[in-house]
Write a structure and sequence with these properties.
The complex is a heterodimer of chains A (347) and B (396). With 347 residues, chain A is of the alpha/beta class. In chain A, 43% of the residues lie in helices and 18% in strands. In chain B, strand 1 (161-163) and strand 2 form a beta hairpin. Classes of the chains: A alpha/beta (347), B alpha+beta (396).
Chain lengths: 347, 396
Amino acid sequence: MQQHFTHRKLFTKAFAATTALAAGLIATSALAGETLDKIKARGVIKVGVGTTPGFFSPDSSGRWQGFFVDFGRAIAITVFNDAEKVEFTNSSPQQRLPALQSGEFDILLSGVTQTVSRAFKLGFHFGPVVFYDGQGLLVRKDLGVAKGEELDGATIGVQSGTTGELNIADFFRKTGKAFTPVTIEETGEFLKALDSGRVDALTQDATDLAAKRTQLSKPDDYVLLPERLSKEPLAPAIRAGDDQWLEIVNWTVYATIQAEEFGITKDNVDTFLKSEDPAIKRFLGVDPSLGEAIGLDPKFAYNIVKTVGNYGEIFERNVGKGTALNFERGYNQPWTSGGLLYSPPFR
Amino acid sequence: MTRFLQPGPSGPGPVLRLRTWIGPLPLQQSLLFVGVLLLFAVLGQNTADSMHRMGLTPGFAFLSHQANFEIGESVLSYSAGDSYARALAAGVANTVKVAVAGCLLATVLGVALGIARLSGNLLLASFVHGYVEFLRNTPLLLQLFLWSAIIHALPPPRGAYTFLGSVYLSNRGIYLPSLSIEGVPTIVWLSTVVLAVLAAVLLCRQLFAGSAFYLPKSAGVALAVLALCYLALTSLGFAASVEIPAKGGFNIRGGLSLTPEFAALLVGLVVNASASISEIVRSGIQSVKSGQWEAARALGLRPAQILRLVVLPQALRVIAPLMISSFLDLTKNSSLAVAIGYPDLVSVANTTANTTGQALEAIIIIGAVYLTISLSVSSVMNVYNRRVVLRGEGKR
């Protein structure tokens, strides 16, 4: 009888647990979908980043810094009016896409290349391109190689989960030359492969390679070839299915670009509050009608520029002249100065 | 037919049997069963919905599409532009290659270490003890990183370490002399030779069972078979030659080459598994009662004979089932390859998932392949196990 009783108790418990679990699953599947709702309920935006100094890396106090990190903070300002309500997590190129798909991140700001297959096959939406890049080759100087084609028969390190893995195969198929890839997932091992002489070259986005070169034990023994194997437009990536979240990302990026076009900077933004130009009045929220119409804080652009600065300031502070990376603006300047950055009008 | 309809002393009827099976609480049982079914239905539906929402089409149609990535090394011929199915097959072949080589080498090393652990030589026994404890108590991934770093620290090909002028160690790979037969793929002649030797060994077991000089006779037969194979091949016009690697240009060419990634993975897996195999062998040998040793010694057998004829056959009963799990562990551990850049199944499937977005399918494929490999290894080993057990118990 005693045994009977324990049986009954056990069954009742197990049954209750199962139903509770099933009910919970139904509940989550009903709620899932609106990324923005989840972000607001959570009170913080989850951002997937990588680890390349200049683009994204924690400083000595553990605070994330970098070009993409600043865009993450700008988005937090748009949503919460607080640059700190954002959480950055490092994710390898291999892990980041499934992590975004499964909802671990709200957005990837880890230098994801915008491609058609990622849009249709992986179900991602991309915000505006924040960095125009191209795939490069970092080779040992003593090989005496000047062009990618001369790497016939070479061993080349590629990082799994990147477009680089596909581009390099395309490049060698096109040129009819042969190469041996060494496909490595972990970023540290990827660098070590070149450092130890296991591979002759690494291939990756050129800017990323320029940054990685500084992390090698003897950076001067390596050279980044001027040739670019591909177009690599790096853009914020989000899961499909939440249009409003996409628009917030879009207009946050556009705000930094538009601010630079207007000449509005972190330091002089307050003087622009007195501007009589109606476009600037709308942009900075002096005239609140626009913000009200789009359902955002009318002063979101002002707050972004005031806190992180305009696109040019973000660029120069993290990767531009005077930083370790020392990049030229190149394509990454406003269309008015001959670059590719172009913001649709704020009206 | 009538057997089932007749209730009686022959056994419980089907209704009663069903009732016993369900247990004393039929209502709760059924509800729980429905609950579990519901849970799986909800999980399935949720997965399908989520995939649909993200614009993913579940299915395996992508397998026939072009895979536009390259694989570093492969037993099967593969190049960018072949199908995903072919890429995955190349990954499976790489996994099988490292698993088979790993199991063989780990067995040899593990058995030697297990016997050494029991040797009367205190220095040898305690060295093996330390070796085993070190390897069993550190994570395998860490060991793999260590081996990978050691191989990467070797000199480049131009300054490679050379042994006997035919073995080269460099950070681009390890080069060994190899036997090659013109016009015949290595895998074909190698498996032919292995099969021939196996057949010879089985034949010897029948012919010389129980006779003196069992080992020398068998070795003689095996050599004769090899010589016959060689003669047959040469008379058919195939030229066999030993290829010795040599330095040429930037690299070392010729011979059998192991890539640094394969070598690091193989050494790491073998060394790691040999530690647990040596413990299995030790426990197996120790499970044989000391009376057996003494009786064999009293019969005048030499130590090597005691081990081979008396102790090992009995120890194998303990060893065989445990070896199966060691082999399966090694096979599954080979999936850590992705961390050090060896293109095994997991590595290729990850890339596939990443470029096609079919992550769920890729995981299903990985799971199915490992399950198939594991089940076939364990069924083969179980046959062996049954043979070993059978001999001990006479008949079953």
